[in-house]
Design a protein that fits this description.
Tscrpt_reg_HTH_AsnC-type_CS (chains A, B); about 150 residues; 5 helices; homodimer; Lrp/AsnC family transcriptional regulator (chains A, B); DNA-binding; about 35% helix; Tscrpt_reg_AsnC-like (chains A, B); Alpha-Beta Plaits
Amino acid sequence: MDEIDRTLLARLQQDATTPYAALGQEVGLSGAAAHERVRKLRERGVIRRTTIDVDPAAVGKGVLAYVMIEAAAWMGGPETGEALRALPWVEEAHIVAGSPSLLAKVRAKTTSELQQALKGIFDIDGVTGTQTIVVLETFFQRPVDV
Amino acid sequence: MDEIDRTLLARLQQDATTPYAALGQEVGLSGAAAHERVRKLRERGVIRRTTIDVDPAAVGKGVLAYVMIEAAAWMGGPETGEALRALPWVEEAHIVAGSPSLLAKVRAKTTSELQQALKGIFDIDGVTGTQTIVVLETFFQRPVDV
DNA sequence: GATCTTGCCGAATCAAATACATACGTGGCT
DNA sequence: AGCCACGTATGTATTTGATTCGGCAAGATC
């Protein structure tokens, strides 16, 4: 994991369709060497996958909210994760320090769909309350700084 | 934006390296037709970009926190966004309803780096306070549901 | 009914990914 | 010093897939 690898990662985060030849040039390596490094980064799991960034608004998901979830007891077990994963609106779910003890990122088409998502969360066993923070506007969103 | 487009999006979110021929087969189209649809999705901005998903832990960023930011006055202007963007630890920044009025997703290598990030946020003009929610464990994180 | 537009197909072409054989440099060992 | 062994780079095939293109069919428009 040297500076070259970091540059490759940053470059691929910007545009994963960049040809290896061009990548190599940017870091002073041959295309084949760049390819080999990227292959290893994938192998080691540094690069989890190649994906596309879909504009949520373009697919109708105009409502974003963070939901802080209050739990009766410790809800750090995998069942909790699965229960949240079963709700298609939940994009992220974390265990957090303090009370509330869970945090979920929820994206919905409308506020009434958001309400439906909240109901889904409330119905999970052990959930005693939620507090929702509605996002009005997103300044920016960017990949991990490498 | 029909069912086929949505399937293509979902498939590309899973793996953007899938050949068009395979994509086409999955939706009952030729490779060329699938290619044309994806090209248009890009053109229309539904697909923002092709990128890689980097494991934050693999690049040392082991600490994740959400920071709720209290502001003296309305801080919805672009300067606020720029000020937050200037902090490399801030991955997302949103304007939210209520007080606190801003929310930032912060990723750092260590807690002391997190502290440094918080200092950076505090130093932004108009910020009167912050409340930090530290993530202990991430259940999951997945792309927009299409 | 003539014409346009849109979306699809299959084939041809072209670019890039991948595999391969080979060199180079570095550290450890005799 | 001389000699591996290993990891990494290079340049060159070879293969794979992206991209382009002409043609065709199904509506929509007038």
